[in-house]
Amino acid sequence: YILHPPGGVVSGDTLALTISLDDNSNALFTTPGAGRVYKAHSDKGLQRQTTTITLGPQASAEWLPLETIVFPDANGELLTRISLADGATYIGWEVCCLGLPAGNQPFENGSLHQRLEIYREGKPLLIDVLELSKNNAAFRQGAAGLAGNTVTGLLVAGPLLSANKDLLAQLRELSADGATAGITAVNGFITARYLGSNAEQARRFFTRCWSLLRPALLQRQACEPRIWAC
């Protein structure tokens, strides 16, 4: 369990998490509570959180944190970089909640730069970017963007040695409880995306995906950390 007592970042903060796994090692990482990118100060100082995971040959890492809440008027940067040696595998997800809709505080004037990078032996395998600011409100509201939804999520798993059509078919049959979801295969990775309005719903969907992906990729049955039940 990764514990950060303050629970979030404010203007000027840089929260950096660095994980290194040796050859043939295996680890699952999660968090006991949601992360937060709080409202920025008047100077709009950047609030940065970086996660760097480096895997040795034949190592495997699972990075499965609870959601990150991005407060209205935040100025956040969330960067995740995964470096894989030959034979290393990775499963990870990120769930991001925009604004405080239950308190009628939408994410309208804030900024968020979210970036995931996965490399193998220095070569990029997958790069995914989400850029939100007051200048692209049309993207946040448009049908080709977030369509007014407040929770986004991405799960990635791989690399797989070959495309598994049966596995893809099983994943695509999973329910996201009415939210928008999709499964794709990208450059040796399977990606699952969630777009909706409920972080718990997103995590339930990703947990269902993980329960199929973990045995296929790591040859271990899914066993949920007990803290997820709290």
Task: Describe the overall structure.
- By secondary structure, this protein is mostly beta strands.
- It has helices at 137-141, 165-172, 199-218; strands at residues 8-9, 14-21, 26-29, 35-37, 47-55, 60-63, 68-70, 75-84, 89-98, 111-120, 123-132, 151-158, 180-186, 189-196.
- Strands 1, 3, 4, 6, 7, 9, 12, 13 and 14 form a 9-stranded mixed β-sheet that branches.
- The longest helix is centred in the C-terminal third of the chain and has 20 residues, at 199-218.
- The chain is globular.
- The model has no long low-confidence stretch (mean pLDDT 94).
Protein topology:
Blueprint: E1 8-9, E2 14-21, E3 26-29, E4 35-37, E5 47-55, E6 60-63, E7 68-70, E8 75-84, E9 89-98, E10 111-120, E11 123-132, H1 137-141, E12 151-158, H2 165-172, E13 180-186, E14 189-196, H3 199-218
Parallel strand pairs: 1-4, 2-5, 3-6, 4-7, 5-8, 6-9, 7-9, 8-10
Antiparallel strand pairs: 9-12, 10-11, 12-14, 13-14
Keywords:
globular; about 40% strand; about 230 residues
Short description, anyone?
The chain is mainly beta. Helices cover 14% and strands 42% of the residues. The chain contains three helices and 14 strands.
